[in-house]
Amino acid sequence: VYLASWVSKLTRRFLDATVLQQLTISDASRFTISSLVRYGVLVLAILIGLSIIGINLSSLAVVIGALGIGIGFGLQNVVANYVAGLVIFFERPIKEGDRILVNGLEGDVKQIKLRSTVINTLTNETIIVPNSQLVGNSIHNYSYDDRRIVIVNKVQVAYSTDLDRALKVILGVAARNPYSLAEPQPGARVSAFQDSGIELVLWTWIEEPTNKLAAVGWNNLEIWRAFRKTGIVIPFPQVDLHVVDPVLHRASAEKQGPPPG
Description:
By secondary structure, this protein is of the alpha+beta class. It is built from 8 helices and 8 strands, in the order H-H-H-H-E-E-E-E-H-E-E-H-E-E-H-H. The chain has helices at residues 2-22, 27-52, 57-74, 76-91, 131-136, 163-176, 212-230, 246-256; strands at 99-102, 105-112, 116-121, 126-130, 140-141, 149-157, 187-193, 198-206. The chain has a 5-stranded antiparallel beta sheet with strand order 4-3-2-1-5. The chain has a 3-stranded antiparallel beta sheet with strand order 6-8-7, with helices on one face. Helix 1 runs antiparallel to helix 2 (27-52) and helix 6 (163-176) packs across helix 7. It starts with a helix and ends in a 5-residue tail after the last helix.
């Protein structure tokens, strides 16, 4: 088993470094081919090893058939994960290197195995997700077909602000962002009238989803600097409180008399 695993890994590395590099296919297709070849070599090497040490493969088939019912009931989750792994290999909803959001956690796909997928989160934590969860649930894949994504920055300005000027300022910030794309161009809109101010929204296209946090932070800092330079006020939460003198209020109520009826 050890030799079979070692040979299958070497075979996959050889294919990735030589044969598959010469083919004009996508990275996802290369991953699918190399993974299937690896597991095929692994199974073949194990069968050859069993026959070399004198185990009759036909007798193994009888034993496996007898255990099939027990395996089917006792290892339903394991079998489901392996089947889901094959689905991932063929349909390729995700591939190694994708930035995904699953179970509320965002991270990069590091390795896809037959039973599980290894994900490295933004906080450098490793999460091992069973493949059945990736196939049976919704997955937010930032780089499925196009690695470009849109980042959103929201900011409030005071009601006395010249909105046309404020929109021009934040569009200038997006244009200077080192992570942004020239095309499609960024966009800015007046989003809502909030209690403390008017909300503006800035959309910026970036090339890589892995740069999302850095690009959002860059825009936020530069918007604050640009507003401070141009005199645009970012309001803080505020409430107008009117205090009424209880003595005057009672005197006014007595002067008006009791309510009718």
